[in-house]
Amino acid sequence: MAAKIHRWVDALTHERDEEKAVAALVSLGPDAAPYLVGELGDMRPLPSESVSIHMSGSFEGLSHYGPKVVHDAVTLVLNEITGKNFEFVYNGADPAMRARNTQQWQEWCVATYPDKARICSRSRLTRRDKL
After folding, report:
1. Beta strand extents in 1-131 (DSSP E only)
2. What is 106-131 written as a DSSP string?
3. Looking at 8-122, which runs of residues are DSSP E strands?
4. How far apart are CA 101 and CA 24, in angstroms?
5. What residues does each domain of the chain span?
6. More confident: 32 or 92
7. Is the dihedral of CA 17, 19, 25, 27 positive or negative?
8. Residue 51 and residue 67: Cα distance in Å, rounded?
9. d(CA 27, CA 81)
10. CB 42 within 8 A of CB 69
């Protein structure tokens, strides 16, 4: 599952694949949560700052957001597949909010998936992070 999630998270950064990647990540369901939490360190910019997602709890069924970086989009997916929400970063956020969001998701993940604690706690470094 990790490799599939990496591919879809990478696809978030390509304009032609962004919406499809969000839908594919949501379709993986709650079992993907630890791997997605491990992707929250990805701060690459998104090509389009507009994402529409079919939200299960939404009145209209389709919600629209403006995530700025991969972290924001992954958080949106995590909210949909787990029903959990910590910091509201779906429409962009500052680095401090994203750091708090990551910490809260990691704590939740370790408590919820103790056998995947190492996956929950890792932070994926991207090419952008290494610069």
Report:
1. 51-54, 62-65
2. HHHHHHH-GGGHHHHH-----HHHH-
3. 51-54, 62-65
4. 22
5. 2-124
6. 32
7. negative
8. 7
9. 8
10. yes
Token pair recorded at residue 103 = 């910490």
pTM recorded for the entire structure: 0.86
Amino acid at 26: V
- Token couple for 49: 């700052």
Query: So what's the pLDDT on residue 88?
Result: 87
pLDDT in tens, 17-67: 988 999 999 999 999 999 999 999 999 999 987 776 666 655 556 666 778
DSSP H or E stretch at residue 77: helix 70-82
| Token pair 């491990």: residue | 38
The 10 Å Cβ neighbour count of residue 83 is 10
With vertex at residue 130, the alpha carbon angle to CA 104 and CA 85, rounded to the nearest 5 degrees, is: 15
